Amino acid sequence: MQVKVLSARFDIPDAHKIEVAKEHGAYATLDKVFAMQPEEVIELVKASGLRGRGGAGFPTGLKWSFLPKNIDKPVYLAVNSDESEPATFKDRYILVRDPHMLIEGIIICCYAIKSHAAYIYIRGEYTTQVKALQAAIDEAYAAGYLGDTIAGKDYKLDVTVHRGAGAYVCGEETALLESIEGRKGQPRSKPPFPAVEGLYGCPTIINNVQSIASLPFILANGSDAYKAYGTEKSPGTHLFGISGLVKKPGMYELPLGLPLLEVIDKVAGGVRDGRKLKGVIPGGSSTPVLTPEEAQTVTLDYESMAAHKTMFGSGGIVVLDDTVDMVKLVENLIYFYHHESCGQCTPCREGLGWMLKIVKKIIRGEGTIADIDLLTELCDNIEMKTVCVLSAACTMSTRSYLNKFRHEFEAYVNGGASAQTAM
């Protein structure tokens, strides 16, 4: 069930070092890449069906093709390594265990989009990952894979690591750009979109770490080899971070399209301690929760998730058993999003704080049925009324708990106790 595309070198000792990585194939695609025209590289990535692995799932090659033609401005690549979504920890594996795969992918992307400068925006708390990444970049410069020439080719490329200050909202692409430019990390209104006017007012492509790291395999093996994994509309593999109340939490590379419950049972060992499955968060904290009944028919791909009115997200699967208090889970969730609001938009800044106060009131046993209804109403009035989707990340998931586990909220109202205590 598990595959080795992105994770092929993860378990090789010292694979983060350039000499070991090269022994196992790192930078082997560069002669092929530079023998192609940039447009041919874009078409190859399009043909592979690679979709953005940051959560949105937008076709990667298609995004590249949005860049304006025949412009006299520089083109930038911004690699999003902010990875702030709770329950998401896939990118840090790449940064520590195989950073040269990412650097090779950056070279491929930059050549395809005719960029000579790339920025890796990395979460400020990722101190270990920053050290590993910067060391790999220094090695790549010393070996001639970055700088004025790349592997002896007449192509200049510089890569800069930019550390964030720990703001979740900077995972949003335009807030990321604002932060790199030295301003407060607040999302921009769109249009213009970054591909037209991004970093320093120039055309910019923003891709997730895992998206860029997938490129060496595609260049080395071809689009058909990549499409051999996954489904027709969701091809390839994905790094799934499975956490929560399972026997074997961890990071697993799997082809897309596998049944969700089969992965939980066979890969993660099933729900721990013989408890019953109560729910599954399928793609990080912002994705609507699935009930056990819904999970029975979900497969791990973008289309199946959408059909079940949730999202594939970042691939961070959280397994919840029957000991979990869903009301307190929602309290924790809203607290996070309220705390991480940049404050730019009133519905987010004020509305999420209002929601948090209501949930705390319910947990104290002072709430009413009207308060539960008000939470739903606030979700409806906040969602998509802001510049970015941070507030929607909170309201979409909160609404799913209100709809599917309303009885637990009512248990607090009616008895002043959690659903577990009432059972």
UniProtKB/TrEMBL annotation:
SMART domains (alphabetical): NADH_4Fe-4S
Presence of the UniProt keyword rRNA-binding in the record: no
Cofactors: FMN; [4Fe-4S] cluster
Superkingdom of origin: Bacteria
EC numbers on record: 7.1.1.-
Xref: Pfam families: Complex1_51K (PF01512), NADH_4Fe-4S (PF10589), SLBB_2 (PF22461)
Gene3D superfamilies named in the record: 3.10.20.600, 6.10.250.1450, NADH-ubiquinone oxidoreductase 51kDa subunit, NADH-ubiquinone oxidoreductase 51kDa subunit, iron-sulphur binding domain
One Gene Ontology term of the molecular function aspect: NADH dehydrogenase activity
Entry's transmembrane regions: none
Segments forming domain NADH-ubiquinone oxidoreductase 51kDa subunit iron-sulphur binding: 327-372
The entry's keywords: 4Fe-4S, Flavoprotein, FMN, Iron, Iron-sulfur, Metal-binding, NAD, Oxidoreductase, Quinone, Translocase
Catalytic activity reported: a quinone + NADH + 5 H(+)(in) = a quinol + NAD(+) + 4 H(+)(out)
GO BP field: cellular respiration
InterPro entries for the chain: ComplexI_51kDa_subunit, NADH-UbQ_OxRdtase_51kDa_CS, NADH-UbQ_OxRdtase_suF, Nuo51_FMN-bd, Nuo51_FMN-bd_sf, Nuop51_4Fe4S-bd, Nuop51_4Fe4S-bd_sf, SLBB_dom
PROSITE patterns: COMPLEX1_51K_1, COMPLEX1_51K_2
Similarity comment: Belongs to the complex I 51 kDa subunit family.
Record's function text: NDH-1 shuttles electrons from NADH, via FMN and iron-sulfur (Fe-S) centers, to quinones in the respiratory chain.
UniProt protein name: NADH-quinone oxidoreductase subunit F
Organism field: Desulfobulbus propionicus (strain ATCC 33891 / DSM 2032 / VKM B-1956 / 1pr3)
